[in-house]
Write a structure and sequence with these properties.
Oligomer: single chain
Structural class: alpha+beta
Shape: globular
Number of strands: 15
Order of helices and strands: EHEEEHHHHHEEHHHEEEEEEHHEEEH
Strand order of the largest sheet: 1-3-2-15-14-13
Strand content: 15-25%
Distance between the termini: 58 Å
Length: 354
């Protein structure tokens, strides 16, 4: 029986004293220039510098509260995107040995369902019916005949359209369709097996809610909002995004397709990065540009709105790229301005010192 779940991805981020000093200095500066704002003063932050060419396994990182799991709303749609491409890759490990689409779907159910259900014990113990926990392969995959025999899977057209709308437009109905088709057990089993979620501490990247109802959510503890269904640490989300940029999440082709959606989200989506002064009205100039992003915004149980984002930025003068993830900032302009200033000053101090 095939094992559809991935092997753990390496951690690309490493603690770096220079980056840590840069972030600490930036936080101290912004506390003076923007006193009382509820962005950096309460937020969790990860900043990682990309070293040179793709394939680097050594990204200098610094953060604050970066190991805390926080509710982060639509930023967690990145987790569903990752899970979709991981399922496509796993299906294509057995597709060449299936005679036709019917045989392939039967093989997927026979070989994948039990390992997937066992791979996410928290979901299995939640009380959700098994059919609602597992992938509906027929809604995700479009098998095509190979000239040499066997099959090759692509995404179903409707599923792919929903995947793009989920990331680029942050459409909740499209997100719900993708998440239900993938199943909570697959999404969270893939995150756990891939090394992005850690059950003993219930920390890392977690997505077990649809954003639009229809399935009972499965919640874990968070630092900012009690039990939640969409949560992450900045460190683990930054590691996941770094693998996308590195071309090593699932495979190079899948990484490039995921990165393309995040790039389009940044350039044309209705929810641009809060650090992108070129798309946000009356936001301050930054010394970097935003090349890829997925933002999140949603209410805590107190009804206070919080903002988050997972973003790739490029420093204008040097071309150096950085993976930036922050969350749990209040959604007001002073807080968002201050968070952008922290990131800018961190990058400047890291690159130039002083």
């Amino acid at each position: 029986m095939a094992n559809p779940l991935p092997t753990p991805y390496p951690t690309l981020l490493r603690a770096d004293p220079l980056m840590e000093a840069a972030l600490l200095t930036a936080l101290t500066e912004v506390a003076v220039t923007s006193p009382g704002t509820a962005g950096p003063s309460r937020g969790a932050i990860s900043v990682a510098a990309v070293n040179g060419s793709p394939g680097s396994l050594d990204l200098p990182h610094a953060g604050v509260r970066f190991g805390e799991t926080h509710y982060s709303a639509s930023m967690l749609k990145v987790a569903a995107m990752y899970a979709a491409f991981e399922l496509l890759s796993s299906a294509n490990q057995i597709a060449p040995f299936s005679a036709d689409a019917g045989a392939l779907f039967a093989d997927l159910h026979a070989q994948f369902d039990d390992p997937i259900d066992a791979g996410a014990p928290t979901i299995a113990a939640s009380g959700l019916p098994r059919r609602d926990r597992l992938p509906t392969y027929e809604q995700v995959l479009n098998p095509r005949h190979l000239d040499a025999g066997g099959m090759l899977c692509l995404f179903q057209d409707t599923f792919l359209a929903n995947l793009q709308r989920m990331i680029i437009n942050s459409n909740n109905t499209a997100a719900a369709a993708c998440i239900r088709a993938l199943g909570f057990s697959w999404i969270n089993g893939a995150l756990k097996a891939g090394g992005f979620f850690f059950p003993p501490s219930t920390s890392g990247v977690w997505l077990a809610g649809t954003f639009a109802g229809g399935l009972t959510p499965v919640r874990i503890p968070s630092a900012n909002d009690g039990l939640v269904a969409q949560a992450t640490t900045t460190f683990d989300m930054a590691n996941l995004v770094a693998h996308v940029l590195n071309g090593t999440l699932v495979n190079e082709v899948s990484s490039e397709q995921m990165l393309a959606m995040l790039r389009t989200s940044a350039s044309d989506g209705p929810d641009p990065s809060w650090m992108d002064f070129t798309r946000q009205v009356n936001f301050p100039f930054r010394s970097f540009g935003v090349t890829a992003t997925k933002v999140g915004i949603g209410p805590l149980k107190t009804e206070q709105m919080v903002a988050s984002e997972a973003t790739i930025v490029e420093h204008g003068d040097t071309g150096r790229r950085f993976v930036v993830v922050w969350q749990n900032s209040f959604n007001d302009k002073p807080s968002l301005f201050a968070m952008g200033e922290v990131i800018e000053r961190t990058i400047e101090h890291f690159l130039f010192g002083g």
